[in-house]
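S.,

Sequence below, as promised.
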Amino acid sequence: MRTFLRENALTLFFLVALAGALAGQAFSGLALFNEQQVAQGAPPVGMADYLTGSRFAVDVTENWQSEYLQFFLFIYVTVWLTQRGSPESKEPGKEGRESARMQKVDEYAGPESPRPARATGLRGVLFANSLGLVMAAVFFGSWTVHSVTGWVAYNADRLAQQEDTVSWFGYLGRPDFWNRTMQNWQSEFLAVASMVVLSIYLRQRGSPESKPVGAQHRSTGIEG
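The prediction came back faster than expected:
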C-alpha cells in the first residue's frame, strides 16, 4: 500500500482535492440557490435535489469543458508551434510529428514499448493520437452537457418570470451561453500563455514543469 501511494501520489492528491472542491461547491452552491429561492418566494430545496438539478451540473461542466479545451489545444498546437526557452515547447526547428525512429513506433519500437506502438494501420494511428483524442472527446462531451444543462436552467428562469422558453439551438445563440463560456475560455488561454512565457525566465527547483535552476533562459524543452 505504501508503494502504491508513493507511486500514485500526484494523481491521488488531485483526486482528493477535486472531491473537496466539489463538496465545497455543492454546499456553497446550495446555500446560494436557496437564498435565491427564498427571495423569489419559492421553497428551498435539499442537497439531493440540488445535486441532480441543472444548476449544479451547469456550474461543474462549465469549468470542465474549458479545462479540457486548454489541454486539447495545448497538446495539438505544441506539435507544430514552438517557444524558444520554454520547457513546455520542443526546440524550434523540430516542429511536426517527428520520425518513426524518434517516436519509437513501428519497427523502431523497443521491447518495453507499449504493444500498440508496434501496430500499423488504424490501431497505430489511434494510439499515436490517443491523448489528444480523449481530451477532445471529454471537451466536446462536457461542452454538450454544459449547453444542455445551461439551457434547462435558462428556461427555468424564464418560466419563473412568465416568459416563453427557447429551444436548445436558440439558447446556443443567446448571450447567456456565450458569456459564461468565454469567461472560462479566456482565463484558460491566459494561464497557458503565462506558463509558457514565465517558465522561460523563472524556475521552480525540482519541478518537471520547470527547467533546472541553472539552465540558460534560451534552453528549450528541458525539464528540471
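The radius of gyration is 23 Å.

Coffee later?
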